[in-house]
Amino acid sequence: MIQTKIPLRSEIAEADKWNLSKLFENDSAWEAGFGEFEKRQAEAPAFKGTLAQSASALAALMRFLRELGILEERLAYYADLRQCEDEGANEARTMTGRLTIAAAASEAALSWVTPEIQAIPNPKIEEFLKSELLADFRIYITRLLRWKPYILSEAEERIIAVQGEADGIAGDAFSVLTNVDFDFGTIDTPDGERPLSQSTWSVFMESSDRDLRRRAYTAFYKQFEAHKTTLAALFGGSVKKDVIKARVRGFGSAREAALFPDNVPLSVYDNLIATIHANLAPLHRYYALRKRALKLGELRHYDTYAPIVPEAHWKASWDEAVAMIAEALAPLGAEYVDTLRAGLAGGWADRYENKGKRSGAFSAGSFSADPYILMNYKESSIRDLFTLAHEGGHSMHSYYSARSNPYMHYGYTIFEAEVASTFNEELLFRYLERSTASPELQRYIVNKRADDILATLYRQTMFAEFEKRTHALEEAGEALTADIFRTEYRKLLEQYFGPDMVFEAESDLEGLRIPHFYRAFYVYKYSTGISAALALAERVLGGGEGEKADYFKFLRSGGSRFPIDSLRVAGVDLSCAAPVEAACKVFAKLVDKLEALLAS
Question: In the prediction, which pLDDT does 2 show?
């Protein structure tokens, strides 16, 4: 049946919604929990000044922080997930706002904790850490002590905590400017005038009508051109903020400060960029193939996302999609597959679109409840099948992490987060490739996989290199202007896209429209993540029980190890170039395969 309207939340079957009762039974229960959170905050001052007395005194504070943290996490997840169900619902939005204020107050009230722990003399804290009373907190405290050279006085830390909310002003202003204030107008299409916006941009860029793509591209970037000075000021302000915060704490650079929490050497970042530079030939070959497939005299920037393979006919119900994913993930064993299948059939997932629901998809794994998945699943979209496998990988990673570690270090890092999800996508791709007899579907999934790896491996590295360059300019005392940003970005466009791409005068404005840049130095983790995932998929599928066991050690690590160490246990060493080089070879083979499929 063709859907003629988007249903209301109340019209969605309960079986198709997530079950949040493991967080709170209902809004009233959340309200009681919020009252408890505010009440517990008042207990914090009683611990002040006691931490150096004994391991027992330090453990008492740690237990308090654990209980308060678990409660805050439950409150936050429930409020956020309820808001995602219907972003127009005032009740959930009010809950989120109230908790944000209360959490900021809690952080300020506890700003003394880190300086006081770090003021404990080294011999004494080392003796404390031998106590079994601190067994569940040992990793947390040890990592806290790593920050000792970069932690300021109690008064200075309080100032930083209080003004922390202002850190996001540039990013928020960018979001409001580009998503609300910008008027991109409408585009004349064969079906009439259609609005151009940040969300419809991708639809126009994926159109098979080249003139439509060109007109949408020109109209879209016209707004960025008109506001380039403001956009440059916002991005420049964000870069300056990163540099200032790093200098205040005593780091050598903003990049060093950003990589320090994960204990990732700068060489990992630099090796990624250098390895991609050495392996741009397959990327350039792909763009040459795209040019031929589209039968173009010259490939333009607005031809980047145009389909070179028509979307294959596809239909799978939710239950059929879950069954297919279970088949694809069978090499991981019955426990993994049965747990994920039961969760997707049960209350983990919020399956379908409803009016006001947040778009896209995500996984939200917490310590106390199920690893929830937001989907807007469509039976006719094979992309949604891959998205479900992807989010299922995140959720199973959270499932194992939460059940294998104490609360204070159960959470894994963003550096590791994309590994388990992309691993699942790779297993699904291999399953579909070998199980489908349809040439149409073969071409489509090979093209899709190539595009996905391109977007994650190559494009995110280009972004990471831009972040490195712009922050280095600020640290060298260069003025950050629109012209500087555009010049640096155009150099990267030309290097990464290669000789078959013809750019427009406005193409380098792309560097001023990427929201990721307002959270600096994390996009490189997508590139390292997919490199690790591809290497691990090859290792697990080509190995035996030992290789599979190593992968599960990684899934269960949580935050017990730094990410480079966690992945090394799984069998991948990201401190060297080999995994990134191997990922580039996977992409090259996909280009070969796509070229052969298109020729046939």
Answer: 43
